[in-house]
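Supplementary Methods, section 5.1.

A reviewer requested that the exact input to the structure prediction be made available. We therefore reproduce it here, unchanged from the version used in the analyses.
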Amino acid sequence: MEYLKVSWLHHFEDEPVYLYSEIDSQRFENRKIEIYPDGSFGIACSNFHFGGTALSDQVMPGLEEIMEDRQFIPELISQAEFELIWNQYFYFLS
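The structure derived from this sequence is encoded token-by-token as follows.
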């Protein structure tokens, strides 16, 4: 698994500013969290979605390809960091 945080530099109120993804060995998303400028969020996994967030059906690009678009700042994060964010938002829904 690979864990990715992408900061999206923009001024759109209805688009996320942070995207967290758990990516499998074939580069598909398993889980995703999107955080919006106002603090709202969306979350998705294979059998659940909330807030308009859905898993991509496309292969995720690598860091270098994401960095080619200067509005995106990608970084690899640890599984522990991803789980902390996932649990914070997922358990907020329960």
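The CA atoms of residues 3 and 78 lie 6 Å apart. These observations are discussed further in the main text.
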